[in-house]
Amino acid sequence: MNRTLGRTLGAIAILSLVAVVPPAPAAAQDALGGALLGGAAGALIGGAATGRAGGALVGGLIGGATGAMIGAQAERRRGMYWYQGRCYQRVAGGYQPIPRRYCY
Question: For residue 65, how many other CB atoms are within 10 A of its CB?
Fold first, then answer.
């Protein structure tokens, strides 16, 4: 009974931490990055929820596949960058500030 409670609390703690992590910048949103992050998170959650290597393996596979799909479909910002609280666009020879709405 105590072992199951510990696993459940561990899974809840990991999910809570994942929920408050800020999203990655748009430049890091690609299929490989999504697969790596999703696989790692899935393995942690699967291992914590089941307490077995099989749960971690399945969680890693599902998380990796889901992360790759999300990363591949993520919309690129095409030269718009968020840096030090401002939005910039790449132009010949450098960057110029642009309105914040372009870096949604």
Answer: 15
Rounded Cα gap, residues 31 and 65, in angstroms: 9
Give residues with Cβ within 8 angstroms of 51, minimum separation 6. Answer: 3, 7
pLDDT tens for the chain, 104 residues long, are 567 766 666 666 666 555 555 555 544 456 777 788 888 888 888 888 888 888 888 999 898 888 888 777 665 556 777 788 888 888 888 889 988 877 76
Rounded CA-CA distance 61/84 in Å is: 36
> What distance lies between CA 10 and its chain's CA centroid?
20
Strand arrangement, sheet containing 80-83: 80-83, 86-91, 94-98
How many CA atoms lie within 13 Å of 100's alpha carbon, on the beta-carbon side?
Answer: 3
Q: Tokens 């409670």, residue?
A: 5
CA distance 68 to 98: 31
